[in-house]
Amino acid sequence: MTVTTTLNHQAGKRRNWAQYVFLAPTAIVLTLVVAAPLLYSVYLSFQTYIITYGMGDFAGFGNYQSVLADDFGSVSWVTLKLTFLCVTIEFFVAFGLALLLNQPHLPGRQFYLIILLTPILMTPVAIALMFRLMFNPSLGIVNWLIGGLGIPPQGWFGDPHLALGTVVFVDVWTETSMMLLMLYAGLKSMPMEPVEAARIDGANRFHILRYVVWPLMRPVIMVTLLIRMIAALKSYDLIYMLTQGGPGKETETISFYAYRLGFRFLDIGQAAAVSFILLIVVIALTLFLLRVMREN
Amino acid sequence: MIGESRWVQWASHLILGTASALVLLPLLWVLRTSFVDKVVAYRMPPDLFFTPTLDNYRAILLEFDFGTFFLNSLIIALVTTVIALVIGSLAAYAIDRFRTGGPVVPVAILATQMMPPIVLVIPFFLIFKRVGLADTHAGLIITYLTFNLPYVVWLMMSFFKRVPRELDEAALIDGAGFFGVFWHIILPAALPGIGAAGVLSFVLCWNEFLFALMLSGQETKTLPVAISSLVTQQGTAIGAVCASTVLAIAPMVIIYFAIRKLLVAGLSLGAVKG
Amino acid sequence: MKLGGLTTILALMLGTAAPALAAGDVCKGSDINILMETVPDTDALSSIKGEFEKAHDTKVNIEAVNYSLMHEKLVPSLTASTSSYDVLIVDSYWVGEFKTAGWIQDLDSLIARDKVDTSVYFPSLMALNGKVQGKTYMLPFWHYAMGILYRKDIVEDPAFQAAYKAEFKRDWRVPATLEEFDEVVKWSGKYKNMSGIAMAGQRSDPVVMEATNYLFGEGGDFYDRKTWKPTIASPEAVKAVSIYADLIRNAAQPGALGANFDDVANTLKQGKAIFAISYLFLYPTLQDPKDSTVVDKMMFAPVPGKDSFLGAWGWAIPSNAKNTGCSWEFIKWVESKDVAYKRAMAGGQPSQSWIYKDPAFIKKWPVMAQVGTALDHSKGLPIMSRSTQLVETFAEVMGSVLADNVAPKDALEASEGKFGALVKGDPLLK
User: What share of chain A is helix, strand, coil (3-state, %, to 5)?
Assistant: First the structure.
């Protein structure tokens, strides 16, 4: 008895320093590469700093006030719409496909998996160019195909009413596969006994899904949604390559707005203010989502 | 009963087939475009029969220095991934097993994921110029750790959760060192997870655009930046873009086939459970 | 910025001390790095840069990127202690910004020292991409004159001309005013059952480059260039924007609002549109049978109305350059008559006027004969510190008119304040 206690005690001591040694490299790296630049940009957000004129005076909340008064409302609305549409559609598509793929006897499963997961491997830059080629209103294959169905040609990225929807389509094409991978892996790792038991009890497919699979999958779903939502709120690559935020401001997201302020208007102070507000929005929505998931 | 499941099977194949077609057709279109001249690429209605040309591939391989860009992407993605895996899994182990630093640490690490990369670019550039990291592989590797490392830590935490605690507790009591336990017990048990995390982090680095755009130069340009430079004011070399896309996916497809099983197994292992 | 000034002085001192050395020594051990756009002029330079490398025992690294990425890549580099680039090419609408920020060096002493003749350049280009406030900061590299690109084969078809005469009661002529252009484009599109015009309404750069031609064509401008009061809501501007909106709604190819210059070029190349107001430098690709179905069918004419929009690029040396002497050697070489001519023959857009009088050049590139006229009736964006932001602001106005259907007058009037804010405190305009 005494021997074990001593050992445990010693182990506890060693544990104390060993764990910090384990954590240290990551903590140091993240402090240097994330926390330091973040603090620097928080500082910048309170300065008048237009690169052309050099560093100016302390601005107080001036930068925050001007961006909030200017376009921030419209770009937040676009960002929220885009995030909500993308995350919801991608989730339902991915979850549906994952359920179908996870059926016990499905010939061709590997074939479907290989194809459906390919978009993960592609760089968004190339995907965007590919879809600009296909959605080109007068020279693209899409308008030619829908023409065959008797639908008149559409302007896609150039149509104020369709632009956001078309961006959502491209985003869904690009990002669903990553969600599918995570959800499918989650289903694979789910214990099968409760499902079997329910089936033997005569529950139908819908009931099994609602009362057995859903609760078991909830943690996986939560993490998947969280990761995707954070990424969608920051979405930038696709907007940059597809529409540059246009037509008008129909597809301008907060990230792209920050980019525009920083690299086109060269107003680092305002750009930093926008990105900092974006960070707060992301954190707030994350906490909100976490709470919703926990309450359910 | 049999009737119903036959019906479900048909419906499943119909839905999966449609989804696969939606993914596959654009890819085939890219493949086709990589083998045609621009004048054919934009012709509507499309030519069903056309004379394929290797000009696009010749152009990117011979005139465009594709090899260098490919190698840059490979070096940067590989090194970042290895570093992230090594230090990330150590941290994940400490956080999962000992709650090192309390509940704040995992949240803080997740929070770093929320940073819009745009915020980081200018400070990075200014700092890198001063310390001579601009236009170097090392510089890009450092910036890639900003999104890669937190991602790996989170994935690895969920993988380690799945390794039964009794395993390492028992080994510790038997007098094994901490690193020994980590090396001989935890790592082997979480190996598929490490594989999956490695692949995903490699993919993230391979496809990254913004940092590479701002922080690379002629020497270190990565593939996505190189592809985007084929879009010019004078016209997009769409054939060359498609050819580069095809060649850029190729290695990923090979990796993917090689470790497909590992990937799904790894992620199933890692699926977070309560 | 103080540091930048200091570096300039030091560099100039070194520069003036340099003549004692042979030219070859100046570049020993230092490469020349240049960030360039992927355009024909860049290709033309790449193919002959070996001459300079051999003569000076150095290496010239050209980093060619997409235009929209250039500014983003240059700015961080210029704000750093030493530049990643040894020679800059500066777009005409960055000139004011780069000068105010102190990023580019005054070249006058070098020009005087080496007796470089700047009178070979078109005066309009020298004014746009050479001198700022009386000092020479750049040597013009190439220009992107804009004009009407149109289908010669269609408008010269007798049947078309007869129908034109029946409609407009006059013989065919290239439209001389924007109002006439608007009418003719709409009519000919309907008559030929194709798009009358290919337009690029995508945000920022494309829509602004196009719409500025309409603005200048109507005789409007962003500011009164003496008092720097915004004139963006003038009747001329309202008219220009209305015509632009009318064309994009009623005559342009479908989806023009999301199109960029590449889409315009491809629409023309696939024979889907009759007119475009776009860059002359697209011409070589319209003549490439691998790209285009309209080889030898296109012609170029100046923008109708008063003035057209002119843009250009100029060579400059960054204030934080590693080796000013070598950068200057390179610029001298690249703008020497012999090299400029070679670049022109390879499909570039020369900035030196004598080349346009060279018969061999005009024979190889017949459309270039029109360029002199186009340059005479053209002006650039105002040279102001925040002209890149001017582009963004005008793009926002165009967006609200084209996408959100705000009346041109309302949109332009609403933007006056923003245009006013852009020139506030600008040291270049005092």
Answer: 75, 5, 20
